[in-house]
Design a protein that fits this description.
Largest interface: A-B, 10 and 12 residues
Strand order of the largest sheet of chain A: 1-2
Shape of chain A: elongated
Largest sheet of chain A: 2 strands, antiparallel
Radius of gyration of chain B: 16 Å
Radius of gyration of chain A: 25 Å
Strand content of chain A: under 5%
Helix content of chain A: over 70%
CATH architecture of chain B: 2-Layer Sandwich
Distance between the termini of chain B: 14 Å
CATH topology of chain B: Alpha-Beta Plaits
Number of domains of chain B: 1
Number of strands of chain A: 2
Helix content of chain B: 25-40%
Shape of chain B: globular
Distance between the termini of chain A: 42 Å
Strand order of the largest sheet of chain B: 2-5-1-6
Number of helices of chain B: 3
Structural class of chain B: alpha+beta
Low-confidence stretches of chain B: none
Strand content of chain B: 35-45%
Largest sheet of chain B: 4 strands, antiparallel
CATH class of chain B: Alpha Beta
Number of helices of chain A: 22
Oligomer: heterodimer
Order of helices and strands of chain A: HHHHHHHHHHHEEHHHHHHHHHHH
Mean pLDDT of chain B: 95
Chain lengths: 435, 113
């Protein structure tokens, strides 16, 4: 991951791990354990202990203990060690809360923790962790009883291991505010009895859609309001794990493919001056070939996995056609247009309609595209979305209607939410002035 | 865990239902959760026009005609159920006949003792 931000992210992973500018071998070993095992250890601990906060505290104490105990040599199975110690620490923590709980509650809670098929020695703990635990964690964080905002925040924090500060930046709020939101979300899980489990078969499909919606949101929203920074890596990482744990699901494979194919183009999306580079102008040599290959390989399985195909799979197929074209001129726009038609049937939306219009213009000419865009505008859809007047402006420009194009670019400029877009619209306006 | 399932609907929407069918549906639903053991209690409330709201401020009792807030959907009844978790409680709530035209609020109840 490039940039200062990327570096900062890697050095402050799991439960608010003390900042380690550490050079010693021991510090690096423990940091390594944080990164590799933190999320999974937490997922299992939550199951064993039955409480998010207690599990997090237990894990935090286990990390602190590891810093000392692993000084001579790290254990053969670090994850199992963290789980075993974390569980004991969580139990200690629970006993320390005697003063704050009714006796009844506390006895019940202790019995619960003991009752879980809880391993006493480290080897059993190794068996105790399963991929299932990670799925449990993801589905719980994305439970529909939590607000979408809470789902995203909780997923970023507990599954993607971002610090509270980083999650706060993603939402453009203070760390204090975000800490409160996370506390409330976990409190609701506990108080309302949200079960810590992978949903049963009859609920699985709709719950998977919920998880994918969260992942997609993480992928598409700019980090800290800067479109050049994003949490795309987190979203892709999570989708990869989901695809491994829930194989053969078109929606999961489709979303993963879509994100990979889109993210692969990032290096070409902005020039050195920080200006937007349109798809047709991008230097395709800068695209990440590995990601494109990974994405392409998923598209067909994703489309075939279910009938009708998942909209994510169809969007991935469209992205694949761009990814496969060696030059902009070689893009198979006809195929893209028919895929948009399929997408409109499966999952109609004004944004998809807008993209459909832009693709249609590449096949049937700008006038055809403009007709669709004007129908959208007349319906009042996408009011306030800068891409609508921007698309209209582009089509008008190509039709030689400079005056109308200028008006549309001015509207786009008013609606633009980020500086690169504003600069781009101003450039277009300047070009049109020069005529 | 116990959950209160609070049944909200607009009375005009209630009137436009087939009353006999609604009664039959409620009967069937209630029987089914009695059988599974989920049922704890339930009541149907008299119409909102019979409501009175009481507040005590600065030692003065203020009594006003009507529900505590004028909202389009109003409380019409409730079920108190035993369920193992929120998913089970929401599954039960979704089967309440009024869920199709109104809203069911699912609220966990503090355990006593």
């Amino acid at each position: 991951m490039n940039g200062v931000w990327g570096v900062a992210r890697h050095s402050s992973r799991h439960p608010e791990a003390p900042a380690r500018a550490g050079v010693s071998k021991d510090a690096r070993t423990v940091d390594e354990a944080f990164r590799r095992h933190g999320t999974e250890a937490l997922a299992t601990l939550i199951r064993l202990v039955g409480d998010f906060d207690l599990a997090e505290e237990g894990l935090q104490e286990a990390f602190a203990a590891a810093a000392v105990a692993w000084r001579d040599a790290p254990p053969a199975n670090p994850r199992a060690w963290l789980i075993t110690v974390g569980r004991r620490r969580a139990l200690d923590q629970l006993r320390r809360r005697i003063a704050f709980r009714a006796r009844q509650d506390q006895l019940e809670a202790e019995a619960e923790i003991e009752h879980q098929a809880a391993p006493e020695d480290v080897d059993e703990a190794a068996a105790a962790f399963g991929d299932d635990d990670l799925l449990r964690l993801v589905f719980t964080c994305c439970h529909p009883a939590l607000s979408l905002e809470a789902q995203v925040a909780l997923t970023l924090r507990t599954v993607c291991s971002l610090s509270t500060a980083q999650v706060a930046r993603a939402f453009l709020v203070s760390e204090e505010t975000m800490a409160q939101r996370l506390v409330r979300a976990k409190a609701k899980i506990r108080a309302a009895g949200i079960p810590y489990r992978t949903p049963p078969r009859e609920l699985l499909d709709e719950r998977i859609q919920g998880v994918l919606a969260v992942i997609y949101l993480v992928f598409t929203e700019a980090y800290a309001g800067d479109p050049r920074q994003s949490l795309a890596a987190e979203a892709i990482g999570l989708a990869r794990r989901l695809a491994a744990l829930l194989p053969g699901r078109g929606a999961v494979q489709g979303l993963l493919a879509l994100m990979l194919l889109h993210e692969a183009r990032r290096p070409a999306r902005w020039n050195a001056a920080g200006d937007l580079v349109l798809l047709e102008d991008q230097d395709r040599a800068l695209w990440d070939a590995g990601m494109i290959a990974e994405g392409l390989a998923l598209v067909e399985p994703a489309l075939k996995a279910q009938t009708p195909p998942s909209p994510y799979a169809v969007q991935a197929a469209i992205a694949a056609l761009h990814g496969q074209a060696r030059t902009a001129a070689e893009t198979d726009w006809r195929q893209i247009v028919s895929l948009y038609a399929v997408l409109m049937r499966l999952s109609p939306s004004p944004v998809i309609e807008l993209n459909h219009a832009a693709a249609l213009a590449m096949v049937d000419g700008p006038a055809a595209g403009l007709r669709m865009v004007e129908a959208l505008t007349a319906r009042g859809s996408l009011a306030g979305y800068d891409a609508l007047p921007a698309t209209r402006a582009d089509l008008l420009r190509r039709l030689g209607r400079a005056g109308d194009a200028r008006t549309a670019y001015e509207e786009a400029l008013r609606l633009a939410r980020h500086d690169p877009e504003r600069r781009f619209f101003r450039r277009r306006l300047a070009e049109l002035e020069a005529r | 865990m116990q959950y209160m399932l609070l049944i909200y609907s607009a009375e005009s929407d209630d009137q436009s239902q087939n009353q006999a069918q609604l009664m039959a549906d409620y009967g069937a639903f209630t029987q089914s959760i009695i059988q599974t053991g989920a049922f704890k209690s339930a009541d149907r409330l008299k119409p909102v026009s019979t409501a009175t709201t009481v507040r005590v401020r600065d030692g003065k009792t203020l009594t006003t005609d009507g529900p505590f807030a004028e909202t389009r959907e109003q409380l019409g009844g409730y079920y108190l159920v035993e369920a193992k978790d929120l998913d089970e409680a929401t599954a039960i709530a979704a089967r309440i006949p009024t869920a199709k035209h109104g809203s069911i609020e699912v609220r966990p109840v503090w355990a006593m003792g």
